[in-house]
Amino acid sequence: MKYVGIHTQQVRNNRLSIMLLIMFPVILLFVVWLFIFLVSWLGGGYYDAEGNLVHSVDFDNVTATFLNAVPWVVGGVGIWFVIAYFSNTAMIRASTGARTLERRENPRVYNIVENLTMSCGMDMPKINVIDDPQLNAFASGIDRSSYTVTVTTGLLNLLDDAELEGVIAHELTHIRNHDTRLLITSIIFVGIISTVMSLVYNMFSNMLIFGGGSRGSRDKEEGGNGASVIVVMIVAIVCCAIALLFTTLTRFAISRKREFMADAGGAEMCGNPLALASALRKISGNPGLGKTGRDDVAQLFIVHPRMSLSGGGNFFSSMFSTHPDTEERIRLLEQF
After folding, report:
1. Hey, which residues does 150 pair with through a beta bridge?
2. For residues 179 and 9, is the Cβ–Cβ distance under 8 A?
């Protein structure tokens, strides 16, 4: 398995980061336009001579409404993105229960990280630990002040020094390649859309549960308005689902290759690809983090909790996975 040079990989990931920053807003704006179009199409129309409803769209009105909405959408998403981007470290720590690992608590880990960073001329990242018997590790951060390598206590207890060095080298390669910045960018955008979809769905569910109790003379007047609102909510859910699908597929297209590249870079950094392969085999026997149920954070892990040595599920689930098949990663490392 040939490893692409570090500078080449950094340039590629920087280019992908820029593409993501452009693509996700484009997808979001397209879905906003689609929502306005569908609402206008469903709400407009006329009855022909035979009494059939014929839908029609006033494209000038759709365009005007869309242009009025653009500043609000871009501004809201921009503020949301900036807040999430610069607070990602705190959010990841809160979702995983990670804490700072002190040198006196585990000098073994610090010695491994220091030796690896000095060998490749990179800055020493922060080191966090999660008190969890399951095995996993991940890198996070967007700049030198926030780059962090996080490991579980289960990983520290089960892996020998060579295997642990291979895992840490893998995570340090993610940092060197700017993978963490790229992934956090995609996680935030997917998170924005999934959150909006969740809010709309909850509003729709509450409306169906609590909005059906209209009584008295107001029933006929409110019935039409209620039906219109329900249609708008359904259109909003469909549009959010479309946006989530395309942004998630974009994320999948990026994630698999970065794991292969980090495996190759980690093997080159530690000089022992077989140790990293052995570590992946052990991690696959008990992957995951018991305190973390968020799939977006699990995307950062060296082995996704759903991936195992059995192949990670059927073809469909593997195709929609952020991680490549663990057996394939091990096979390539053993041929390195």
Report:
1. 128, 138
2. no
Q: Is 50 helix (H, G, I), strand (E, B) or coil?
A: coil
Q: Spell out, as residue ranges, where the chain has pLDDT lower than 50.
A: 1-2, 213-223, 310-317
Give CA torsion, residues 283, 154, 111, 90, to 10 deg. Answer: 100
pLDDT digits (tens, 9 = 90+) for 275-317: 999 999 999 888 776 566 566 777 788 887 765 554 444 444 4
Measured torsion, CA atoms of residues 283, 287, 289, 294, in degrees rounded to the nearest 10: 130
Give the model confidence (pLDDT) of 38-57 as tens digits. Answer: 888 877 655 556 766 666 77
Dist. CA 134–CA 146, nearest whole Å: 25
Write the single-letter amino acid at 176. Answer: R
Residue 334 a catalytic site member: no
Q: Are 322 and 258 in contact (CB under 8 A)?
A: no
Rounded distance between C-alpha atoms, residue 266 and residue 327, angstroms: 17
- Which residues does residue 100 pair with via DSSP β-bridges, in sequence order? 128
Marked catalytic residue, from 163, 165, 171, 259: 171
Sequence-ordered strand ranges (E) for 132-257: 137-140, 148-152
